[in-house]
Amino acid sequence: MTDDAVLQRAVANEFSALADVLDGISEAEWDTPSLCEGWRIREVVAHVTMAARYSEEQFMTRLRECEFDFTRLSNEIARSDAELATSDLVADLRSDTMRAWTPPGGGYHGALNHVVIHGLDVTVPLGVPRRVPEATIRIVLNDLTAGGGHSNFGVDIEGRRLRATDLGWSYGSGAELRGAGEDLALTICGRTLPAGRVEGDPL
């Protein structure tokens, strides 16, 4: 699954699957704290769907206004756009723009990692039984480990063995951390999971 056409379909499927989940939750549940510190479900979805509402020119204008501090811009847009109607946010998830979106310099691998991790940031605290397809979570796990993606989150996996208990995937050697592939991916991204989701020596 390294072909762009295949990866693009996986990205589109993940956005659609997340939209399907959020179509079925109450307005109150949109205020549930996500796994992204300081963000509710609303802020996460507003962040994930920025490209559906801002052209490249508009985005760059906002970025210049934030002195090219992407984290600051992300927080500002997440806070403001979280107040949009939830139906609009779900529609943005289903938009053709997001189905074909790639982050600057990240390609479809970057897009897939983005939507999978943020999708789990939403579904885990909601307690929604959502399973990322095995082929997709394998790509994400490989990108976060052998691909070096873990360094973006300040997480050290040197000298560690990571083993997925729900699929035949492992990485590295050393003290073992094990859990479902989705939970390992979240842990590598520095998320704090509910107790009992992973076992072994913490990262």
From TrEMBL:
GO molecular function: metal ion binding
Gene3D superfamilies named among the record's database cross-references: dinb family like domain
Domain of life: Bacteria
Mycothiol-dependent maleylpyruvate isomerase metal-binding domain residues: 13-97
Full protein name: TIGR03083 family protein
Lineage, highest ranks first: Bacteria, Bacillati, Actinomycetota, Actinomycetes, Mycobacteriales
